[in-house]
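As a warm-up, study this chain.
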Amino acid sequence: MARLTTIDPAGTQIPGPSATLIYDDWYPAIRSSELRAKQLKTAMLLDFPLVLGRRNDGSIFAMRDSCPHRGIPLSVGWFDGNRVTCRYHGWEFEPCSGRCELIPSLSSHDHLDATKIYATSFPCVERDGYAWVYVPGPGSGRVKDVDALPPVPELPKFSQHYRSAHLTADLPCNVDHGIIGLMDPAHGPFVHQAWWWRSRSSIREKTKRFEPIPEGFRMAAHAPSGNSAPYKLLGIYGEPVETTIDFVLPNRRSETIRCGKKWFASLTTITPVTASTCRIDVIGAWNVFYYVPFVTPIAKFFGAKFVQQDQETMIQQAEGLRHNPSLMLIDDADKPAKWYFALKQARLDGSGKHPMDGPVDLHWRS
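Now compare it with the structure written out below.
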């Protein structure tokens, strides 16, 4: 159970070392390029140990990394491209459904129907270079109607030809701290100081309009910050630049930047690995400077530096959080964090209540 600290007079709370997790949703478990035929890969997702693989037909799967017989990890067994075999007693499972297909120890005197036994499997879809796994709540049982699930998240693209890149980093904090750090508009000039981004001396007052959207909020379309060098580069196209940023539960921040026919889009997720650790994953796609040689490795280099700065800050913050200090959320710069906690609570208690009554302008300096 999360340890809570009251922050401000409004009663907003931030958990201490661990956070309450949101189940019944899609999360990226692993890069899908790591899943190759007849190989098994492991991942931890929302405190579930997973084993993942790619079948001979190209489809991918995710199972709980535990044999229902004696609990040995299925990942230490064998996978022939069609069935996962437990190395303890040779039980064979169809990995997409989890159905047991064979129990070698059964004799002619046994009447057990092996196909009525299921290992835990999870809906798993390959999208935008990730294996997205739908994680039901503990004890919910097997998901039988996959078609009834919400759609798998997808990065928007606005042209047929584009380049893309992926970044990832482990964070030694719970998902709540990771998410409110992700949406924090005031840390940029301090955490991300660089000649190619911004500096403390570039801080200026900003006003942005936010709008409620289902299970989230949107920073409405606006001209991007003029004190960030990457945005300035788009000025060479001579057309207005406009960006929109969305946050949607449980963990997704998407940004689109449009400049005429040129565009950049990113989807960033903060995924809980355990109740006290998480991981940041970023996929970006763009058609800006599409024909410039080496643009993808250059973009990945600077993007990795950016993510590394966030990672180093979260490592430093984790050291301070070990002592369970009192924390605070203040004024407009922290309003998105307050909205996140209210949205999460509404999701957990099933009320569906949105913390925003309508559009609102927020003001801060960054």
